[in-house]
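Quick one: co-fold with norvaline.
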Amino acid sequence: MKHLLTLADLSKDELYELLDLADALKKEVKKGIYTKYLRNKALGMIFTKSSTRTRVSFEVGMQQLGGKALYLNANDMQLGRGEPIKDTARVLSRYVDGIMIRTYKQSDLEELAEYGSIPIINGLTDYVHPCQVLADLQTIREYKGSLEGLKLCYIGAGNNMANSYINGGILAGMQVALACPKEYLPDTQICAKAATTGRFTLTQDPLAAAKDADVVVTDVWASMGEEGEAEKRRQIFEGVYQINDAVMAQAKKDAMVLHCLPAHREEEITAKVFEEHANEIFDEAENRLHAQKAVLVKLLGD
Ligand code: CP
Ligand code: NVA
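Sure, here it is.
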């Protein structure tokens, strides 16, 4: 593992190694142990979009590991004035030991990885959000004991989260069922690859997708950068693509609910279901810290 651009680049062993390391690091912290695995290492964090969880968890994660994180708002960088990514990559490679970037195009990450000489971590693109799904898998395993054979159901837009749930869920050995409107389907190639496992289904019917699910997940109807489409999307998603009591009645009795956050109550999830599963959802948010520390140790550690 050299970078974390998408979970699709990982082997199953690498995925489980990261999850085991995330659990171990979490246990250490709970005992008050902060081993300085990344003493004197620096992480550049480039953001071209907003963030609460990703920014704070990476920054605190680096601090706990004995290193330093630099918040770099792309608009404040020369990048925002047109300096090429390939030059930014080569410059930052001389200063920092790794880059985490949140941006629009996956190809921008790939360019950073190609021209830089340091590990690149995907902090969300329009295509995938691998760090979030790592944290989700860690959370599901904590609650359910294992991942293999469990059914994960995603209801909503075929966006970066949908793509990453397919990548991560299938890699972990889960059954993955998605319900997305035909106008907003997940990535065709990701779906085609998942379909070859016989553990993937894609429907427009949330109730069918949720049948006997162990975990039910969703995400916002309009992602960052899609705000202009919010009204158009609302008309397609409203009343159908939502985690509510009817959906939960289809899932297993002990089904978990996760949400990457931020959540929009009464849109993709009802306030009632959200609050009934708030412990799981905020454990999931906490696990961003532990899961990403595992990624950082693996990629930036000696
Ligand atoms: N889930 C997530 O990535 O949250 P932020 O946008 O707050 O980083
Ligand atoms: N799909 C959402 C996820 C936010 C964490 C977005 O890209 O805005």
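If it helps, The chain has two domains: 3-129+288-300, 132-286.
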